[in-house]
Each structure stands twice: as structure tokens, then as C-alpha cells.
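Fold sample X.
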Amino acid sequence: MGKLNQNKVDHIVQIILRDYEDSKYINHTDLYNQPDKKAIIDIVEKLLKVLYPGYYSDKVYKIYSLRNNMSAAIEDIIFHLNKQIMIVLRYCFPFTEMSASELEEKAENMTFNFMEKIPQIREYLETDIQAAYDGDPAAESKAEIILSYPGLYAISIYRIAHELSLIGVPMIPRVMSEYAHSTTGIDIHPGAVIGKYFFIDHGTGVVIGETTVIGDHAKIYQGVTLGGLSTKGGQNLKGVKRHPTIKDNVTIYSGSSILGGDTIIEEDVVIGGNTFVTESVAKGTRVTVKAQELQFK
């Protein structure tokens, strides 16, 4: 291959550099004051070590040193999480109007409020592990679930992101949930409300929207969408209940879509595979698609 024409290279460089000079939002180049996506992901991985000591740790700690090592890990998370919350508060409206001292106090309060929720998150995750073990005959042990199930991994990060969302931390919860999405193929918005004993089996292609509410002992399979009927209203729909409510003891099989903020799936309902549900379903109902005809030629 011949040598590139340097004049053309220089011309292309100049074209692109000039494009940075207008007011497009993607030209925002305040690099040092932007949230650090890599640092937020690192916080997620450190939090998983705290949630599951002995499973996500870099090494196996002896019993007598576990306490000291985990103390150091928790303090490290507090420092880095506080730093990233401070950055996003400074970066995101309406916090941009606050003074430096107000932002510092706000970030510190948010950090401590979240860290105090760690025991509660662990309590919920214990029930999620139990639900996975009880609901999957292929599971050899709970350790296997913790170490290898993408559903539990996504739920773990969701539970972290959800608590941050509840206390009003902007942007960081969504970065965390999208990290889980890119890693597992499971998309759970941090604003969704999900009860105990939640099990996602297989998981790939699952979508759970922002205003979804899910009760206890829910089980869903791959390809399930809990979504909105339409997003044509755009930002005008912000804050509106757009996604369904799933009550206790509901099972939703693969490929099903349940849509709409007014759609309520009552207790003990079974939603069959490849169904499309846009209206409420009464307690104890089984929803299925009439058998399709197979043709062999």
C-alpha cells in the first residue's frame, strides 16, 4: 500500500477540528469536570466485593484479617463515591446553582445515606439468591449462582443503582445500570421498584422500564419486556407511570411483552411465552397464545 497523501490528511484533520468550534452539545470538552465513567464502574466492582465478601475479593482473606481488609475497602468506596457524587452534582442541573460548600455537604450526605443502605441491599440479595436456587433445577449451589448467573449480577448492580437513585444522585445510577446492561444483556432501569425474591432466569434481552413496579417472588425469563406503550410524548412523559405493575408470585415466560402504565398483573398470574399484554390481568390467570400451526414441507 502506498504512502498516504499528507495534504489530504492535514485537510481532514482541519475539517474535523473546525467542527468542534460550534455550539453542538457533543462538543462539550470540559474534560476535568465531567463524571468519570471508568471510576464509577470501578466503584461498582468494589461494592460487589463488599456485598459478597469472599466471592468478589481479590484474594481469600483469613477470618482474623477479613474485618480489617473490608474496613479498608469500605473506606475506599466512601472516598471515591463521594468524589464522583460531588462531580455529578456540580455537572448536573439543578445542583449547578449551589455553592461549593453546599455541594460538598450534599455529596457527603448522599454518600453516607447510601452506605448505610448496604445491609438492606445485602438482605434483599440474600432473598434473590434463594429465589434463583429454588427456581432453577440446574443450579448446583448458591455459590454457583453468585459466581456465574448473569441475572443475579444484573440484579445486584440494579439494587446498588436503585438506592442511589432513591436518594437523588443523578447520572451515576444510570451509568451503573448501563454497565450491567452491556455486560449481561439485561436492562433494568434504576428507577424501577423490585421486591424481594426476584429471579431472572437466563436473562438475555430482558428490559425493565423506569416506572415498573414488581412485587415479591417474581420470576421472569429471557427476552421479557416490561415497557411503555409509546414514547411519542418524549420529555412530556417524564414522571408519568409508563410501565406495568407486576404483583406477587407472577411468572413471565420468555419473549413476552407487558406494556403500559395502567397495566396491572395481579398476584399468582402466569404469562406464557411470546405473549403481548397491554391490559390488566386478574389474579390467578394463565395467559397463553393459542397454539400456532407448524407446517412441514
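Fold sample Y, listed below.
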Amino acid sequence: MRTKEKSLRRPGKLLRGDAIGIVAPAGPFNVKRFNRGIEVLKSMGFFPLISEDLFLKKGYLAGTDRHRAEMVNRLFAEPNIKAIFSAKGGFGTMRILSLLDFNSIRGNPKIFVGFSDITALLSVLNNSCGMVTFHGPVVTTLADATDETKTSLFRSLTSDMKIEIKPRKGVTINPGKTSGPLEGGNLTTLCHLTGTPYTPNFKGKILLIEDKGEALYRIDRMLTQMILSGCFEGLGGIVIGSFEDCGDVDSVYRLIEEMFKDFNIPVLAGFEVGHSKTNITIPMGIRAELDADRQRVTFHETPTLDKQSPKFRISKKEFP
């Protein structure tokens, strides 16, 4: 059951000098790209804490299911850690959902960032724990992230300002205005959650979707499955991120327009969110207003709290 919105858990904002944990809930990662991404986080003034067991491999997974789940559980339980970043997406996040300690996580809300396959955790932490999460870059994609990507990430996690997002090349697929919590992420992952105990429910919400490398007919099939499952009943609106390497993007937009023509909801496309060169950070779970006519999404409140628990700070000389 969805946690009531009034009990939404917002984490404390990040400050320079804060320690952040890194998890690998999905696949193993390229160490060189990972190290370059870590340098980006250091340049922002944060101090990534990296455990040796982060580098374990088990085929196409970053260790066993229990190992990956325990990494997530451990970092949420650790009070010195102020945020958790995912090392990489890929595949495997769904396999650890039943092994997570939701009671502990619920009692220790903190910033959690990722995208792609990490959508499974973003969605479940929203719905099972009532936590604000952040759809944004993973460590390995920070390796060659654009300045806009890095600036958006930093501002989203450290600023007291409410966020407004406008697509650089917006496409209004269906006009109108709506308000509601914004949730979603990678379409393939959301579709695969359907029919599980973690099926997303988008009633009264604004849906964000993005994907990469999916043929048009597969996008059609995924949306059809989700519509037939009922998880889009009462959907308030749609925000469309990048559909990288999915063929002609206008064909994707026309398909989405056709699939949701009877929903009579605002649909706005063109956001640089997901697998595109730029991947701006979007808070998930808090209320936003989607104005498809003026082509913008405005959040009603800040995603983080100014108040923080006692801090754990590391001086630069202590960090290798």
C-alpha cells in the first residue's frame, strides 16, 4: 500500500564535507570509469566511502543477491552516511528487493541516486518507504557527464530552492496542466515490476518515462501491458525523457500519444533525462505541477530538508 503523502520522508540536504556511500545493486562496472566518476563527486566537495566488497562479481551481477542487498541495507543503517549513489545500472536490482530491510530504511531516510535499472529501487523506496529519491546519474556515467548534468545533480542535492525544469526542446504532445507526485523512471524496469508485489501505482501521479535501445514495437508492448494491468488508472500526466537508440523519436512520441489518447491528460516530451548525453536530476515522490502548455515542471516543495542529524565530516587530508 502506498505510504500516505503527508508522511513523505525527505532526506537532509548534502553539505560540502559530507560522506556518501556507494552501492552496486545491479551489475559490475568498469573500474576506470568508476574512478573518474568518484573524482567528480570529490570535486563537488563530497567524500565517497568505498568498501572493497563493492568490486565483487558474480557473472553479470556485482556479487550475490544477498551481498548486494546487504550493501544497501548497511549504508542506509549507517548514520555517518548522508547519501547513497549507485555505481552502475545494468541488470539485477529487482532481484534484491525482497531482501531489503524496509523497516530500517524507512527509519533512516537519506538521499538515494540512480537511474536505468536502479529505477526498481527508486520506485520501491518511494512506494514502500515513502521516501523522496533522485532520478539522476550513477557514478560511472558521471565519468563523462556534461556540465549541465553535474550542475543539476549538485543543485538538486544541496540547494534550498524549489526546482523548476524546462526541456530545452520541449514537445507538447497533449496540452493541459496537472499536479501530483512525480514518479517513474526507466520504462522497461517499471514494466517488469508490473505483476510483482512492487507493482507501481500511478493513480493521481505524474509519470516520468525514459529508455534506451528498445524497438518501437517493444515500447508498444510494454505500455500495453501496463495499461492492461491497470497501473495507469487515474494517471495525472506524463513527462517523457530521452528514448536513446529507440529509432525515430517522433515515432515514439506518436505511439505514446496514441496509447494515451483516451486518458485526456497533459503529456510533455523532450526532457534531457535518462540515457541521453545530459541526464538532469529529478526528485521523485514529491508533488509537482506539470504545465504542458508552458512546457515546464515545477515542484511544490524542496526535495531535501535543511535540518540534518549530527554530521560526520572528513578533512581532505584524511581522504586518500
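Sample Y note: The longest strand covers residues 177-186.
Also: Residues 2 and 127 are 5 Å apart (CA to CA).
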